[in-house]
Write a structure and sequence with these properties.
The chain is mostly helical and 243 residues long. The chain is built from 8 helices and 3 strands; from the N terminus they run αβαβααβαααα. 56% of the residues lie in helices and 6% in strands. The chain binds a DNA duplex (21 and 21 nucleotides) through helix 2, helix 3 and helix 7.
Length: 243
Amino acid sequence: MMNQEERCNTTLGLRTGTETGTRTGTETGTRGVGIKKEKQSKKNKIGFWLDLSLQLHPKIIEANDHDHKNDYEKEDHDSSSFKTVDDDDEYTIMIKETISNTNVCNNNNNHGSRKKLKLTTEQTTLLEASFNIRTTLNTGQKQELAKKLNLFPRQIEVWFQNRRARTKLKQIEQECEMLKKCCETLNDENRRLRKELQKVRYCSLKFDHRQAPQPSVPFYIRYPIATTMHITSDKIGNSSEED
DNA sequence: GATTGTTTCGGGTTTACGTCA
DNA sequence: TATGACGTAAACCCGAAACAA
């Protein structure tokens, strides 16, 4: 429940736009100061908006897609920056009832939940084909595709955004896998070289025993690293691989 | 050149929905 | 059959950048 102070925290706005399902351009943008502020403080705030939306050209909706289309139309409005009421508490309901017969609408989500559209196979196929040609669309291409698929341009936009994100995620996963394998290979190589080093140490000890008194510094340390590596890989390394 | 409004995008999150144990 | 966990994808939110007026 809201307290008295919150109840008084109301906003009044004017909304323009169309019923075509596209955004009105006020949803995003850091410099759209006035409207942006309203959006950021939408929670726990009652907002009244005068809706001047126009239905320019009612879309022809296929029978089996009817519910989803209507839902999306509602959804698209709800997703705009004017959704200022989130929960149907007593006060909100009262406000709704009060203003229900006027042109003022508060753009509340009527059912408290959004419907999720599942794209058909044909739609997905065409979208994928378009994505393979180009990963971003300009306005014209977006509208053309939306017309073809009987979707809203906003849906096309969202699909492409999500698709780009999925592509990037897959790419990152692949790169991660590659680095893992690379790391494993390097670890294997490291283990192999350590083993070879042990063998060299062992050989040098035997050699010193036969040829000379035990030196104070181990045999392998007396050679520069590069030389040691050379001996290791070319001479002894081969024999170790035969093991 | 600075300011403002608009559009688009990336990154992250939320949520509806399907699947499976 | 019911249900909860989980994965997926559509939709959403926000900040940043680019661009035009």
